[in-house]
Amino acid sequence: MSLEENLYNTFSAGRAPDEKIDFHASKMFSLLEDPFGIWCDFHAPREASVFESNRYENLKVRTDKSNRDSWITQNFPNTFFIKADNITERFKATLAAMARGEEAIASASLWNLPENVFCGVNLLVKIPGEESVFGPYHYKIIQLKRAHDIKDHYSLQVSLSNKILWQIQGVFPTYARVILNGKDAKINCVLMSERLEQELAKWRGIKDGTFEPEPHKPPKAASSPWRVYANKVVTERKDLLMLPHLSAAMRNLLKEAGYKTTDDVANADLNVLKTILEDPWATESYYTSIAYMHNKPVLKEEGVFPPPRKKHNLYFDFEATETFTKDNESFVYLIGVWDAEENKFISFVAKNKEEEEKIFSDFFDYIKEPQDTILYHWTEYEVKKMRSLASKYPDIAQKLNALANMCLDLKILIGKAFYLPSPSLSLKAAAPAFGFNWRQGDCGAMDSMVFYTNWCKTGDNNLIEKVLMYNEDDCKAMIYLDEYLQKIEIIKPVK
């Protein structure tokens, strides 16, 4: 029996990887950021899953692979690329390439299924000298990431891959390299080993049902395919996650005191809650729970809402994209505006990054009487972006600063005026709390980037129409909330 056959038999445990029982190193991001989604993989009803395509991630993966292969070919011209599509053949081909002593091996696959772990590796590089099972050489890992800085899950992912490599070759490389945009980082796998074992123990606890992690707040309580299910679970439980601004520690304090649902909090004595939580969190939690119980906003501060009006009232929203290049340059490609007086949607679209300046100039020129106009937006992003672009585009700096000066942040205004029956003050949470729905289920902010990118390549107007409809709904969500909160009965707290 050859060396690679013996290694395959040892580390395959006579089977192929199965994500129902085995952990792939790439799932480290989900383990850290979406552990409830992993819990659902094992314990939620399979029929409750709803697949939601992530076009942005799919496009990014394709672009990343192209950029990665280009970097590998340029820096390691003698690289052997594993071409096998079948996961079993990929692992066998990796072992055979290591046994042959290839100088570098790209798209490698490594398993240790007796310990229920496996991984993919961008590049294995041969290091002569120290004796391994393959001979007087061993391999080290290089991973390529599109980010500018090392993320926690990168370090853990590469540390797990390094551990599997060590178990196979019999040599433990202390460091693994991660190539980021613009810099080369080293991960000390020895220092990461204890943390790695903790995270793998957490995964095993999730898998065997001894640990159920907390979901996130709706509307993204978990990732696809469990987002819809997780949102439903959190909502139906009347979970304390539905209360904005509370940390996990604060929620635990409430639970330990017997307040396990928003109904419990709504029926509590506010003075008692203030002995458990400091203000403003006690008061915020109490009145938000009242809002949930009655499905109505509770007045927080009089005289704040409705917002001031002028002759022209415009609700606007930006869409920005990445260019999916090595430079990862971002630009605003769409300014959407709902004109309240004209009762219509206006859009300014840049066909490329060179037209970004033009659409802002056109936006300003659309405004007939700047001194009699208010620009309503949601969050500070739009104002910050226009202030920063004033430095980038000095020829229209005066227009950009004038636009920023017309702005009024509805999120700040509504948050100051009301406690809402909403898990956060994001537009995607606040507007649906009162019945607003986006018309497209398959087009969000990240999808819009992909549709726009493909429209630029193909000229297919159906793609840009989906982007425009999504942006229009963002604008309509703002005016919907604005008008709805003026007509709905408001609960006034008892003094």
UniProtKB/TrEMBL annotation:
Residues 314-485 form the YprB ribonuclease H-like domain. It comes from the Bacteria. Pfam families: RNase_H_2. This is Putative nuclease (RecB family). The lineage of its organism: Bacteria, Pseudomonadati, Elusimicrobiota, Elusimicrobia, Elusimicrobiales.
